[in-house]
């Protein structure tokens, strides 16, 4: 039987320019405890914020003007709560981390995720690097 010999070389460079496919890559976010929570097609820092509670707005459904974000949420649904807001009440269906139970976000329709037009990610609840606190983790901590 003939002997098969093959050679291959793998090369990479830190000086390489980003490609179109790398710019469109997915972002992975973790809970403060290190648990994987969210994969999304855009940086959370670039998404709009909700005026009422500064939560990050993730569009879950398409509408005439905007396309829905592509994302996967790894979180546990909780019982809904009713909040008093100026001008009325808001029912929130909250999600928490499966490991440490930290509140991650909410939507205004019953689960599953993407059942509502928007998913709201609570400010300071997710980080890009495991083991590192997000810069806004303690925002509002000392508010009266």
Automatic annotation (TrEMBL):
Residues 21-134 form the STEEP1 domain. GO terms for biological process: endoplasmic reticulum membrane organization; endoplasmic reticulum to Golgi vesicle-mediated transport. Transmembrane segments: none annotated. InterPro entries: STEEP-like, STEEP1_dom. One of its GO terms (cellular component) is cytoplasm. It comes from the Eukaryota. Belongs to the STEEP1 family. PANTHER family: STING ER EXIT PROTEIN, UPF0428 PROTEIN CXORF56. This is STEEP1 domain-containing protein.
């Amino acid at each position: 039987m003939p002997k098969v010999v093959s050679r291959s070389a793998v090369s990479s460079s830190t000086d390489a320019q980003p490609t179109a496919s790398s710019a469109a890559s997915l972002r992975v976010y973790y809970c403060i405890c290190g648990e994987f929570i969210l994969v999304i097609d855009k940086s959370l820092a670039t998404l709009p914020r909700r005026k009422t509670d500064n939560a990050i707005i993730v569009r879950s459904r398409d509408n005439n003007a905007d396309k829905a974000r592509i994302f996967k949420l790894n979180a546990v649904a909780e019982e809904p709560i009713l909040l008093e807001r100026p001008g009325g009440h808001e029912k929130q269906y909250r999600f928490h981390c499966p490991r440490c139970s930290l509140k991650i976000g909410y939507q205004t329709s019953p689960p599953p995720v993407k059942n509502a037009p928007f998913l709201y990610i609570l400010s300071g609840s997710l980080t890009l690097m495991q083991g590192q606190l997000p810069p806004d983790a303690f925002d509002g901590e000392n508010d009266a």
